[in-house]
Amino acid sequence: MNPIAELQKLIDESDSIVFFGGAGVSTESGIPDFRSQDGLYHMKYPYPPEMILSHDFFIQHPQEFYQFYRDKLNCLEVQPNRCHFFLKELEEVGKLKAVITQNIDGLHTKAGSKNVLELHGSVYRNHCSRCGKDYPAEMVFSSDSIPRCECGGTIKPEVVLYGEPLDQETVEKAITVLRKADLLIVAGTSLTVYPASGFIHYYGGKNLVILNRDETDFDRMATLVIHDSLGSIFSQLKINEKGTSQSQ
């Protein structure tokens, strides 16, 4: 059986699927990942991106933080791709129970998925660090300098920076759905970023699928591994009216 057909069969036979995705899910929408040769971590800036995207740097150098943030993380005009839409359709027929994502681009929600657990937050949520007032992403990205609240406080994106903890409620929801799943599909992630990658250990179901362009340290644990672009993989899958997926 070819790998796509095997993936198809696993989806068809599963009733409680969880999808765990990383930056590779969004690259085909035009958003660069972080660690590939063309990713954000290989771009040249006065400071390393890992430093810029840290809590301490945000507090100490907000001007430089927002220069990078507006330049490289503005994804408001980016559209979902086939992977995002397939997951939305899989949720609609009741098979997919949750999307757990490390991405902050909001593309799963834009595609129409309802139960999206954003481990690292979202650029679409922003609040004043002083009074807590909410602000839209458009206001933050269109600002010329440090975005300020009417109270004078600095507006901060609700994204998890290095040195900040994950949202505990989101963590607990992710653990709950993973423990109940009968199929876990991990896609577009190197599984090297902790604590997010550690979530895979909470899965106790029968089948683990890893879809990624490159090898991961978890490949040996998987039922099925496909090293290919997600666009290629998901373009070969569709969902029929009865709610089971069929290869084209």
Question: What does this entry look like structurally?
Answer:
This protein is α/β, with parallel strands linked by helices. It has a domain at 3-31 and 76-120 and 163-247: Rossmann fold, CATH 3.40.50.1220. Helices cover 29% and strands 19% of the residues. The protein has helices spanning 3-13, 49-52, 55-60, 62-72, 82-92, 107-111, 137-142, 168-180, 230-234; strands spanning 17-21, 96-101, 116-118, 121-128, 134-135, 155-159, 183-187, 207-211, 224-226, 237-239, 245-247. The protein has a 6-stranded parallel sheet with strand order 3-2-1-7-8-9, with helices on both faces. Strand 4 (121-128) and strand 5 (134-135) form a beta hairpin. The radius of gyration is 19 Å and the shape is elongated. The mean pLDDT is 92.
Secondary structure elements and pairings:
Elements: H1 3-13, E1 17-21, H2 49-52, H3 55-60, H4 62-72, H5 82-92, E2 96-101, H6 107-111, E3 116-118, E4 121-128, E5 134-135, H7 137-142, E6 155-159, H8 168-180, E7 183-187, E8 207-211, E9 224-226, H9 230-234, E10 237-239, E11 245-247
Parallel strand pairs: 1-2, 1-7, 2-3, 7-8, 8-9
Antiparallel strand pairs: 4-5, 4-6, 10-11
What is the CATH topology classification name of one domain? Rossmann fold
Could you say which structural class the secondary elements and strand pairing correspond to?
A: alpha/beta
CATH class of one domain: Alpha Beta
Tally of DSSP helical segments: 9
CATH superfamily of one domain: TPP-binding domain
Radius of gyration equals 19 Å
The helix content, as a percent range, equals 25-40%
Strand percent estimate: 15-25%
Order of helices and strands: HEHHHHEHEEEHEHEEEHEE
Mean pLDDT: 92
The backbone outline, from C-alpha atoms, is elongated
- Uncertain spans: none
Topology, number of strands: 11
Distance, first to last CA: 15 Å
Strand order of the largest sheet: 3-2-1-7-8-9
The CATH architecture of one domain comes to 3-Layer(aba) Sandwich
Largest β sheet strand count, sense and barrel closure: 6 strands, parallel
